[in-house]
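re: that complex we talked abt at group meeting.

here r the seqs, copy pasted straight from the sheet so there may be weird spacing, ignore it
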Amino acid sequence: MKPARKQRLILIALMVIGASIATAFALKSFNENLMYFFSTTDVIEGKAPKDTLFRLGGMVIKGSVERPNDGLMVRFKLTDFSKEVTVEYTGILPDLFREGQGIVAHGKLNTQGVFIAEEVLAKHDENYMPPEVKDSLKNQPTAGKGQ
Amino acid sequence: MFLVPDSVGRFFHRMASPPHFYAFTERLMPWLVVIFVLLTAAGLYGGLYLAPADYQQGDSYRIIYIHVPSAWMSLFIYIVMAVAGAIGLIWRIKLAEIVTISSASIGASFTFIALVTGSLWGKPMWGTWWVWDARLTSELILLFLYLGVIGLYEAIDDKRVASKAVAILALVGVVNIPVIHYSVEWWNTLHQGPTVTKMDKPSIHVTMLIPLLLMALSFNVYYVIALIQRMRVELLQRERNSQWVKTMVLEKKR
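got the structure back, here u go
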């Protein structure tokens, strides 16, 4: 390789490395802000904001969904498989909202530590399969409602 | 260059010469079109008709046959663009410069399709058209990078200077590519994690995976077709005063 070309190659490599390092530091320092939602553990440990709106993500615990009065209000528990948070929401849930499904709720905590959601979004997983395969995968009697 | 056989080396060397590239791609084009049509037909038939409905999302998931290949292409084309930019900067190969700028608008289109189909998919599944999570935001930044490349190229009159400026912008923007890919793993996002492009085995049933891969191939061939067509036009514009263009035009007239 000719010296001039080699020099340009090194220059370009340095530029890309520099840009990468700068981006890495920037992303590292904004790490908290880049999180789309808080986990239930964050909430229990008091890392989530107290008085402002924030997003809470987790999996809906099987058998925890209940409608206490006859209205649209629904109450369920979210988990990240270590800590649980109770969520209350009044409104229409997205189609994919199911027990055992990941969701993201937007709202705030009340004084009893219950999360009052204003909006509930369903988070679908990365698995795609026909219903028959799903049924044969899950032969426990409690988990038979694949659709 | 020890590992590359002589004939391959000679092939690339010849391809870097504009008149040879122009003549060769003209002969290649019909074959590419046939392959593209066959792949697309097979992929769409497999994806929209043969593949079963999803256990959770029913038939709505079928938008992945457009959404996922477009998103893959948006990343892939950006990498091609940046690598060609680097080759153009280092070796000053005219054809590499043309690859860079010709890729930009195709990449921008695929990014736009990925964003729009994702949005159409998000509304029924997640319950929202758009959220500012890391995956969606970084993909939007990718669109702006593409548009920036196109805008910068158009803003500079001397196209050789413009190519250098564009290559530097494209190379700096490369840092966004791993951010997009790993965004769903590094941060909490509403967008789900990777299905196919992960170390583990794909978490998609094989009857659904095959049409997806066919569509990905078909999108790749489409990219090559669109790239070649754009490159030929760009080449003629840049070389309009050169001898080989003049002789070719005169021969065509006869």
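couple things i noticed - The mean pLDDT of chain B is 91. The radius of gyration of chain B is 20 Å.
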